[in-house]
Amino acid sequence: MRDENKIKEHLRGLSIEMNAHHNALIYTIPDIVYFKDIQGRNLVVNKAFEKLVSLSETEIRGKTDDQIFPPELASHCRQSDREVIVNAKTLRFDEEFTTNDGKTIYFETIKSPLFNDSGNVIGVVGVSRDITERRKLEDRLGLFNTLLNQSNDAIFINDPETGGFWDVNDKACSSLGYSREELLNMNVVDIEAIIPDKFLWEAHVKDLKRQGYMILEGRHKRKDGSIFPVEVNVKYIKQDKADYMVAVVRDISERKEMEERYRTIVRSSMDCFWLTDSEGRILDVNDTSCKLLDYSRKKLLTMRISDIEAMETTDETAWHIKQVKETGHDRFETKHRRKNGSVIDVEISCNYLNIGAGLFFSFSRDISERKRVEERKMSDQKRLMQEVIDSLPGIFYLIDEHGHIERWNKCFEDVLGYSYEEIKEMNILDLSPRMKRHILSER
């Protein structure tokens, strides 16, 4: 009997000690902890609970939530308590609390039933953890994801080792025709036609890791098998836990079509095409330009406009470039020098495009034959006019405003006794008074 009493006394002491440890744990835990009876009265609360409601445990003990919290929150607490008691099951949910100074705190709460030795529910134990910072982070991430999904570009977050997709935005899904779930079970090799296997992927990642950032072009495969060109801006990001890659992908089908249309027009043009920068450097030419000037394309791309300009000086060409930049376009005639040194007449139509440092798109046409025809026509007209003048009876001459003799007939030469070359250099004032009188009398 004495031994049995000793055992009971030992167990009672052990129970008291365990309760003391249990209470110490409850009071020091940073989460809010509380015990309620079946009537909803708070029996035990910890320091975190006291701090939340700005009341001591003595002031809280025995009070219901209606006596501690605002009506709406108290009603919510009663409902969740009742659900735990009636169903005898643990309940997990989020709730919010507004402090006296107006600050909102979000909690993740777990409520569980308390049972007596007979298995009957006698109360509720609750633990609430402050998740305010987590909620703010989730809100920021939610906003970030919303912004990502509003992007007109496809965005992929990749595992550098496997190429697998960790995350994608809505545009990535719609552009490829896959659901988000499908893409998250795929990798880059599945959608990129230019990287057909794991070995090329590893080489690509190695280059990217060394450079940190790359802009490149690729060809993506849709779910239906169709392929389209893309421009990829990809960045390698290093973190303590794991590295990852972020790729912003833009469909450049329309741009490629325009470029091909541009190349076709330039390639098939019978006129020379020149693409130059603001410094006069030649950036692109077509075959017609190479053929006309007898330079290779490779050589022309090392030259400047001033190297082929035969009429303007370098300073005049620079001034002309400046003028075209200001007006946006120009149409003019000049002369170009071919590789063998011969000079040809050209007509140029030039347009300035304000892209980057500025680009000039120019088409030039060889007008040497046209110039020769015009010169022959003018020469013929002069000869015909001279024949008409020579056929006139008597003296005929024409002087300009300075008295220079511009035109005359054969009779004029015969009367004065001067040759054509001599009269060409004369002024009407050079004639003697006698000659003037003679000319006037002949008139």
Report on the architecture of this protein:
The protein is α+β, with helices and mostly antiparallel strands. It has four domains: 31-135, Beta-Lactamase (2-Layer Sandwich); 151-251, Beta-Lactamase (2-Layer Sandwich); 257-366, 2-Layer Sandwich (Beta-Lactamase); 371-442, PAS domain (Beta-Lactamase). It has 18 helices and 17 strands. The strands form four sheets. Strands 2-1-5-4-3 form a five-stranded antiparallel sheet, sandwiched between helices. It starts with a helix and ends with a helix.
CATH class of the largest domain: Alpha Beta
**Main sheet: which strands, in order across?**
2-1-5-4-3
Mean pLDDT: 84
Radius of gyration: 48 Å
Through-space gap between termini: 171 Å
The backbone outline, from C-alpha atoms, is elongated
Mind summarizing the main beta sheet? Answer: 5 strands, antiparallel
Summarize the structure.
The chain is of the alpha+beta class and 443 residues long.
Write out key terms for the chains shown.
alpha+beta; Beta-Lactamase; 4 domains; 5-stranded antiparallel β-sheet; 18 helices; 28% strand; elongated
Write the layout of secondary structure elements.
Layout (H helix, E strand, L loop, with lengths): L1 H27 L3 E6 L4 E4 L1 H7 L3 H4 L10 H17 L3 E8 L5 E12 L5 E10 L1 H18 L4 E5 L6 E4 L1 H7 L3 H4 L4 H4 L6 H14 L1 E9 L5 E11 L6 E8 L1 H16 L3 E6 L4 E4 L1 H7 L3 H4 L4 H4 L5 H14 L1 E9 L5 E11 L5 E8 L1 H23 L6 E3 L5 E4 L1 H7 L3 H5 L8 H10 L1
Antiparallel strand pairs: 1-2, 1-5, 3-4, 4-5, 6-7, 6-10, 8-9, 9-10, 11-12, 11-15, 13-14, 14-15, 16-17
